Amino acid sequence: MEDERRVENLRSQAAEVELVQAMFGDDLRFYDAAALPIMQAYLEQLDCGTAKPGPTHLKPLSFKVRLPMSTESACWIAELSSTLPLAYPDVPPEIFVSVDGLSRETQRAISGRLRGYARHAHAGGERSGVFAAVQWLQENAPALLEGSVPNESAATPKAAESVVRVPVFARHWVY
Fold first, then answer.
1. Is 101:154 a contact under the CB 8 Å cutoff?
2. Average pLDDT of each block of 10 consecutive residues along the chain (175 residues)?
3. Alpha-carbon separation of residue 9 from 56, 114, 118 (angstroms)
4. Which of 56, 112, 119, 170 is deepest in the core (most CB within 10 A)?
5. Are strands 61-70 and 28-30 parallel, antiparallel or unpaired?
6. Hey, how many other C-beta atoms are within 10 angstroms of the C-beta on 37?
7. What is the C-alpha to C-alpha distance for residues 94 and 83, in angstroms, rounded to an integer?
């Protein structure tokens, strides 16, 4: 029974992450790019009967989604970082939001409200915590950001899109 529940959780995780991946494409980045393909391969092996349910070598899925936000005064890039424990969706996901150009206090406040929403949604039976969190952030972040003033590093609305030049130190000339 426990193994069946674990497999059902893994299937739910894979389906939800695939949905988020289909919606956000290049704006979704995995911290471990091999984690989802390994999980999918394990689930396919279970379907074929070549693997047995039980303790696995799987790692929790960790990723971030870049979400452009704008208010009347500025443009922002929010990054929703999430780690899905292997027991997700039976346990809530770990979620944090960072926004370029905002103070840490403001970022903590937004992350705290988002985590509160995610816990409330999870307690209410919501099974798609990450997808619901992304939707909540898209709906509520502009109102939360409206009174925020960008830091010096993000003084221009397009600061997140600026080019960064990094010097390369090499033994030989690079042509």
1. yes
2. 81 89 89 89 85 74 88 81 88 86 85 85 70 83 66 44 56 55
3. 13, 22, 17
4. 56
5. antiparallel
6. 10
7. 5
